[in-house]
Design brief:
By secondary structure, the chain is an alpha+beta fold. Strands 1, 2, 3, 4, 5, 6, 7, 8, 9, 10, 11, 12 and 13 form a 13-stranded mixed beta sheet that branches. α3 packs across α4.
Amino acid sequence: MVRFGRKFARFVTSVTRGLQKPQRKFISDVLYGMLVGRSVVLADIARALREPCRLIHTEKRLSRMLGSPRLDAGLLQRNYLRRARTELKGCVIAVDGSDISKPHARKMPFLAHVRDGSKSRGPSFGRTPEAEKMAITNPGYTLLQAEAVGLAGHHIPLWMGIVSSADPAFQSEAGELREMMVRLTRYVPAEAIWVFDRGYDSNRIFALLDVATVRFVVRIKAQSRYIFVLDEHGEFKKLKEEGIAAGIPPIHPFKVERWRGRRADRTDLRLGWAKVKLQGYTPSGSAKGYSENWYTLVTVQRGTMTPMVLLSNIKVESQQDAEVIATAYFHRWGVEESTRFEKQGFGLEAVRVLTWERLQRLLLLAMMAYGFLAVANGTTDALRPACASVPAFGPTPRYHFYRAGELAATHLRRRGRLRAAA
């Protein structure tokens, strides 16, 4: 039996260490309200608390405390990362960007135009460059997320930062990524692999990753990048688009486990790899020569499909090393599942506050509410057996946090707020 009340009390105690008593009570109230009310809207959180006063009074108290200068969000985040650090062994750090679309918001701070990833003007959206240009943009914010995804399938959210180009403090996406990595590398194991999708295929990002001295894997846009590889004469040969697959042919057989709903399949793939350099650039941005650093390029192909091209700073000396790079990238999908859960399980896009500081803090607390479920689940999938008791169609799926959220809400609601946080 999962004792959610005790787990919740221990979790709140660990993440609020060093805060004053009113702030500790506020954090406990908000996390409890998010888990029971399944929402980040302050009115829904207030309803879940069921305090013996008018709802508007509870809502005003939460809003006032959320913007209090005495609430040290930095300390709160550091405490959470210290708590999560014990669960990160053997994990891949998956980094992804998403969006919070607010098409009807008018008074929320620093609204900027973002691509609404949930909508498109055509059925082929996201599959071709033409469809990408047809993407719908709405007022909203960009989310920068990082999550530790274990090779056994467990998830630990590490970062949820909100970014807006309308923010006067905003410099660049690379700058936001740098700030995130500086804070997280203190808690992430040095052997962890940081995994990025094609949106991070940028020379500025590669320069940042080189300075950060972390192991990384980035899926690159082969059609827009030149690769230099040594030929049989020891001279550099430039490859682009189709030439990459021809120059580095994926010929080594490889099997990977892929989940389709609740069923795991073993998919046949082929791998190829080579030691490469990237296109070099002058300070003015003109292409010249090639990069100083060596990288490893791994091509992954399924059947006759276009090969997937991965760039990494991990040295490859055997097929097993190349399989580590490919497998790490396949685990990146875990952060996509978590983004969908946070939006659907906590109604992330319904967030409504009127100051930038409150918005940042509320999203941090939403990540910590999900983090409580992840820490309670642990590396042993402790919640999976209990999730079978949740009324639902079919067996418990591999990503079971939707049912875990329902289970936690039911148990915490029965125990009550004061007993759960006692």
